[in-house]
Design brief:
Shape: globular
Structural class: alpha/beta
CATH topology of the largest domain: Carbamate kinase
CATH architecture of the largest domain: 3-Layer(aba) Sandwich
Bound molecules: adenosine-5'-diphosphate, aspartic acid, magnesium ion
Number of domains: 2
Helix content: 25-40%
Low-confidence stretches: none
CATH superfamily of the largest domain: Acetylglutamate kinase-like
Order of helices and strands: EHEHHHHHEHEEEHEEHHEEEHEEHEHEEH
Strand order of the largest sheet: 3-4-2-1-7-9-10-8
Number of helices: 14
Distance between the termini: 43 Å
Number of strands: 16
Length: 440
């Protein structure tokens, strides 16, 4: 069985949905995971913000602003009046639901229900379209089997059991459609896998059913060697190992959700990145296979905060680092980079929800300096320890960029440097010229 995920742009209009229907209409059992139509989740986020700020008229203004996208899509997507009517009815139902929140008390539960609407809408319309085209398919409600536990971690065992039950109801069906991004939490409430989470859904579903392959269909022909949003001349990478892809996803390559490679890696399910606008392009194959000792790609992770703890006591004394790490553990703040000297330790986090509390506790151990608005530039490849020359190529390229921290040797796949946000583009361009030899 295969899992095919289509992102927001891939289902962003009636034309795109029709193209997706063509791509998935081939023999064999498969689960198709859809995102919300592009721009929708951003709008839903704006609606929830307005409601939190008790601005109901602003919220209903945004609801009204979003609706025409769906009405217009229906007009071009469906041919028959019967399906135009069905489409309009379901859209009315969902928009009435969105409009209903403008009066009442608003909490995180309601927020999550609003954010789920994008994927519920796109899958409902796509399913109707297949029906109108007489392509048999089954709409599987993701809320029946996608689940996170009390720590917000995916509950793979639950998903495995419940998805198997859903699939067993349709032994002869070949084409299943489901929502990316949305799930239930440990209390059974509607929740989600955070922004960009449909990739994570696809990988979790792939792991849950031991899929032969997970395909992530998007608007670009695979993982590129550098961030195409900042660097004009980038190229797709044919193959990556799970570890290399996981590093790139975690450190800012937006094409993949930060955690989405982990479930696939766990079950050894290959992940293929493909382009909906250019289906014949080879894309990127992510698999177990190691793929040569070279620098493959760079990515940048934004909004990093660096915290430096300078101790007057013996910093490296036994147990000191543990005490520091425990502070971050207590506040569930993952640490991305760390460097030490005899008198100080610097580390970075991206979740600043509890920054004030973290600083107060760290001050028990020494003086604490905090700098926000930093960027981690992550250079990924297969860096064999007995080879030399990687570091010199990287740092020679970055000679004009002030570097704040360096991390080398943590894994054989990653060299990271921390720089101020203002140097991000310059650093990515410099690496393209210096490491990848693209001289533009
Ligand atoms: P989708 O809506 O299909 O999930 P996303 O916008 O989340 O698509 O991800 C695709 C985008 O990721 C591309 O359009 C590209 O701008 C961006 N991107 C960032 N870094 C990379 C990279 N290294 N390789 C390819 N795309 C990247
Ligand atoms: N629709 C969600 C988002 O925009 C999930 C996704 O597209 O992956 O974040
Ligand atoms: Mg995405």
């Amino acid at each position: 069985m295969q899992v095919l995920k289509f992102g927001g742009t891939s289902v962003g209009s009636a034309e795109r949905m029709k193209a997706v229907a063509k791509l998935v209409n081939y023999p064999g059992r498969k689960i198709v995971v859809l995102s919300a139509m592009s721009g929708t989740t951003d709008q839903l986020v704006r609606i929830t913000k307005a409601l939190f700020e008790q601005l109901p008229s602003e919220a209903s203004r945004i609801v009204k602003e979003l609706e025409p996208l769906y009405r217009d899509t229906i007009e071009t997507l469906f041919t028959t009046n019967e399906y135009k009517k069905k489409g309009n009815e379901i859209v009315t139902e969902h928009f009435n639901f969105l409009a209903s929140f403008t009066q009442d008390m608003f909490t995180h539960n309601e927020e999550k229900s609003i954010l789920a609407e994008g994927e519920l809408l796109s899958t409902a319309l796509f399913h109707y379209y297949l029906e109108e085209q007489k392509i048999p398919s089954v709409l599987l409600p993701a809320l029946n089997f996608m689940r996170i536990d009390e720590n917000g971690e995916p509950d793979l065992e639950y998903m495995q059991e419940h998805l198997a039950k859903e699939l067993a109801k349709y032994p002869h069906a070949e084409l299943f459609i489901t929502q990316g991004y949305i799930c239930r939490n440990a209390f059974g409430q509607v929740d989600n896998l955070k922004r960009g989470g449909s990739d994570y859904s696809a990988s979790l579903i792939g792991a849950a059913i031991n899929a032969e392959e997970v395909q992530i269909w998007t608007d670009i022909d695979g993982m590129h060697n550098n961030d195409p949003r900042y660097v004009p001349d980038t190229y797709p990478i044919a193959e990556l190992s799970f570890d290399e892809a996981a590093e790139l996803a975690y450190f800012g390559a937006k094409i993949l959700h930060p955690y989405c490679i982990l479930p696939a890696k766990k079950k050894n399910v290959p992940v293929r990145l493909l382009n909906t606008m250019q289906p014949e392009a080879k894309g990127t194959l992510i698999s177990k296979a190691a793929s040569g000792d070279e620098i493959k790609a760079v990515a940048a992770k934004d909004s990093i905060t660096v915290i430096k703890i300078k101790s007057t006591r013996m910093l490296m004394a036994y147990g000191f680092l543990r005490s520091i790490f425990e502070v971050f553990e207590r506040y569930k703040a993952p640490i991305d980079m760390i460097t030490t000297s005899e008198v100080a330790v610097s580390l970075t986090i991206d979740d600043v929800t509890n920054l004030k509390e973290i600083i107060t506790e760290l001050e028990m151990y020494g003086t604490v300096d905090v700098e926000m608005n930093q960027v981690i530039i992550c250079i990924v490849g297969d860096f064999l320890a007995d080879k030399h020359g990687y570091a010199v190529r990287i740092f020679d390229s970055l000679k004009d960029v002030p570097i704040r921290m360096i991390s080398y040797g943590g894994s054989k796949n990653n060299i990271s440097v921390l720089i101020a946000a203002e140097y991000k583009k310059e650093a990515l361009l410099a690496l393209n010229r210096g490491v990848f030899k693209i001289n533009k």
